[in-house]
Amino acid sequence: MAKNVTIDDRNIRIQIWDTAGQEAFRSITRSYYKSSTCAFIVYDISDRKTFDNVITWVKECKDMCYKDILIVLIGNKCDLEGKRGVSYDEGEKFANDNNLLFFETSAKDGTNINEAFTKATTTLVQKIESGQIQLDTANSGIKIGKYPNSGKEGKTEENKKGCC
Fold first, then answer.
1. pLDDT digits (tens, 9 = 90+) for 135-156
2. Could you report the per-residue pLDDT of 66-114, keeping only the tens digit for each?
3. How far apart are CA 3 and CA 120, in angstroms?
4. For the domain that residue 94 is a member of, what is the CATH number?
5. pTM over cut 0.85
6. What residues make up the domain containing 17?
7. Where are the alpha helices (DSSP H) in 23-137?
8. Most CB contacts within 10 A, which of 15, 53, 117, 131?
């Protein structure tokens, strides 16, 4: 899946892979780690077990991903406040202790979804502009491309041809 995010009048296209944290996707997940620049680790605020697994996912990301990976911790299903099994403060503390961005969201009603993507993308752009992320490093996972009719960096007439 891909999502376009606008930061400072720049259209930025981000690619998103959802492995749902399932063991069956473990081997596939590992193949994405190497070139990932950002990871969203999502737990269900109404299911304590999912939060207990967060530490494993964070460790795996830090061990296998790009060295300066940005990790965003997401407590999902904030629309289920009455069924909460993990407090907001606990999620926020874990994120702060591990230098992660933190949001509580609801995929059901859209709460904070765009904010999480925008903040993550803004943070990555700032890291690029400050030189923290080196674009010439093959493992950064970031591609600077040209897009037709964008008025910004875009595909040239020469490389527009072909199927891909």
1. 655 455 565 554 444 444 443 3
2. 778 899 999 999 999 999 999 999 999 999 999 999 999 999 999 999 9
3. 12
4. 3.40.50.300
5. no
6. 2-160
7. 26-33, 48-52, 54-64, 88-97, 113-130
8. 117
